[in-house]
Amino acid sequence: MKQTLRPIQETARRIKQLEVQGARNVAVAAIEAMDTLAKGTKAKSKKEFFKELFEAKTILFSSRETEPLMRNAVRLIMSQVEKNVHEKVVELAETVTSASEQFLKDLESSKEKIAEIGARRISNKATVLTHCHSSTVTHLLRKAKLEGKAFEVICTESRPVFQGRITAKEMLELGVKTTLIVDSAARSFMNQVDLVLVGADAITSEGNVVNKIGTSMIALVAKESRTPFYVVSELLKFDPVTKFGSYERIEERSPDEVWNIPPKNLNIRNPAFDVTRRDFVHGIICEEGVIPPQSIMQVIHRKYPWVLD
Ligand code: RUB
Question: Percent of the chain having pLDDT more than 90?
């Protein structure tokens, strides 16, 4: 392995092992790794530099399968370097840096807009249920709290790796009244919930949403008890491959996460995500507003046409 690809390998390892979790954090880590690679490159020619970038892309993309935000980000950065007519590696590397910085800035501004829009949906004294840990959801809740709203949060623990505990800790640090429940208790609490907010890993061309395993069951329960179910997500989690016919691939993780010393011959399945059909989603709270999931293609066409290139 080339020395310059080390930071890429290390980032991919951290992503795989969930030291970095959540779609946004995964994308940010991947972009930062690409930038580090560009800054430290020893490539002697444009060809060599491109080879490094392509190798980096392959390593990062294989770290987690269900992360279109990371893929869209890396693709955008690479396409800008490809458009650069200069031959000098230093100038191409600068393009990686400037494209990375711009992407991170835009991502940050989407997060702020989403929080601003979504916080309006949280009324004083509301009870919000959330699943897993989404930094976009917790940022929205932070915004609502800073606006002085006195809401409470119910977090599912999110087996098998308990990302719900991260959410619970963040909410407590904010001074929000927080209750942790086991995933299977979602129905028991749904009648006292005013709205459900979940993040997204991927949005398909039909407006279906891929998020942490168990999300679709919570959506089902929310529908049955007529509780509004919102997805809080940057539009760039849209996966263009779904428009061209492919299904979003669902990562299947190690059975060890479910039971590390299981009985012999036991078959354990551990899908990381599931698909929530658009008819269960009240709206997607994104940087363009609260949109119906059915409108995702039009919104992407208008706001991020390059995603469909
Ligand atoms: C995290 C998860 C989050 C989304 C959105 O799963 O499903 O809801 O990634 O997160 P995992 P964010 O812990 O397996 O990565 O809003 O931070 O992008």
Answer: 97
